[in-house]
Amino acid sequence: MSGPSNFKPKSAFLQWTERRLPILGLMHSSFVAYPTPRNLNYWWTFGGILSFCLGVQIITGIVLAMHYTPTVAGAFESVEHIMRDVNFGWLIRYVHANGASMFFIAVYIHIFRGLYYGSYKEPREILWILGVIIFLLMMATAFMGYVLPWGQMSFWGATVITNLFSALPGVGPKIVELLWGGYSVDQPTLQRFFSLHYLLPFMIAGVVVLHIWALHEVGQNNPAGIDVKSDKDTVPFTPYATAKDNFAMVCFMIFFAWFVFYIPNYLGHADNYIPANPLQTPTHIVPEWYFLPFYAILRAIPSKLGGVMAMFGSIALLAFLPWLDRAKTRSARYRPLFKQFFWVFVIVCIGLGWLGSKPAEGAYVIASRILTAYYFIHFLVILPLLSYYEKPAPVPASIADSVLGNQPLAPARVKGSR
Amino acid sequence: MTLEAFNRGAAIGRILPVFAGFAPRIGATADMQASPFRGVLLEARPLRRDDGKDRNLATTKTMNGDQPTRRDFLYIATGAVGAVGAAAVAWPLIHQMNPDASVQALASTEVDLSPIAEGQIVTVKWRGKPVFISHRTKTEIQAAEATPLRDLPDPQPDSARVQKGKEQWLIVVGVCTHLGCVPLGHQGDYKGWFCPCHGSHYDTSGRIRKGPAPANLVVPPYVFTTDTMVRIG
Question: In sequence order, what are the beta bridge partners of A384?
Answer without folding.
Answer: none
